[in-house]
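EI: anyone free to look at a 205-residue chain?
SC: sure, send it
EI:
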Amino acid sequence: MRSPKPAPPRRRTALAPSRRPGKERVAALLRAGAEVIAERGFEAATMAEIAARAQAPIGSLYRFFPSKDVLADALIRRYSELVDGAFEKIDARREASSTQAFADALLTSLASLRGQTQAAVVALFDARPDASARRSELHETFMRHLVRKLKERDPKLSDRETHDMATVLLQNLKCMKSLSGDRDAGAIEELRTMTRLYLGAKLGA
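SC: here you go
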């Protein structure tokens, strides 16, 4: 009689603290992780360097994030939460009644996502074997929010129309996020104008 196969090892996950000091420490470790990974890439970044950047003991880093892969998962999850938060800000801007105001609220809120966390997520997508699936998940998060907002603006739009419009807007946003606010200020303003005109043509004033 054959003995049963041993159970596969359980995947370790990040520790979610319940108290404020622990939450603040995790936030600092995530910021440091994003900075180091954005600067050096996922493979070259080390847990020791991340702990040093956060001015935290290495044991504290491993307590909350047992491995670099677990830290990477947390950074990707954090970026998705930032995307959700950006759309919550758009939802809160009830004064954005005109299409132009809506376009500005959309671009301003989502442009705020630029930074070390976004750069780190890009580096993670370039390095990890599950990059394709993770990119798809993030793409669907953006598309879901954009389709919802477009439907709110014009409930008569078909599913096909809202999907196509959301795809166009997402490409504009990707382009904007790739530009430097200082160096490419003119190009960013051109993208804003183009988005206003596009939404105006599709949604009216």
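EI: The chain has a mean pLDDT of 84.
SC: 👍
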